[in-house]
Amino acid sequence: MAEEITAAQLSSYLHFVASDAMGGRDTPSMGLDITAEFIRMNLEKWGFKGAGDNGSFFQKIELSSETRNAANTSLRVGTKSFVLNTDFYRVEGSTEASGQLVFGKDGWMIKSKGMDSLSGIDVTGKIVVFVTPNSEQRSFTPRPPGITDDDVKGTKGVDWADPVTNAVAKGAAGVIIVSNPAIQGLWPQLRGILGRGASGPTKLRQEAAGGPDPSCAGLKSGWRRVVRGRICEP
After folding, report:
1. What residues in the chain have per-residue pLDDT under 50?
2. pTM of the entire structure?
């Protein structure tokens, strides 16, 4: 079968799926539905059998979505107000928070390295400001230099914690992350990711909100990954 697959055939399929006519295949969207039907049609033509609902190629799931309410989303430091999706992005949370600003350095806690940026700092009920010295990684909260995958293999929140998890566990009311140069270079593109709503499987969101990670409480699981993951991994 592999010998019958040609570059021209693959190009034809991929150019259709990735064409402007599919509108980016957002979830949910008509473009996504059309693409799914295209894949179903070919799978049937090639003799595959569906394993979805009632023997079909599809499985229905319940999605929940959220949208940004720009009029009710604001950031003010002292007497200065900042504009949503221009000066700042709201990444997580849906409640009001206010308090004294405290500097939390890069925010990371790595027990095996004897490292805790919030050690000796009272962050309870305060807004913690994080600034990362790493100017190259395209992440809101990149790991400090020298921290490897082995250093974050233990239990999150106990053996290690990213800045947001660390602040939440210590009782912070909110977090402000000053973007590093790599993220600032992507600022206009982030508007398309963070400036609109998000959709996700309802069941998975409910499970995440009730999980053992204290930073999950009351937060949208779809946005947590944006903050702690590498949103534009090279």
Report:
1. 209-234
2. 0.64
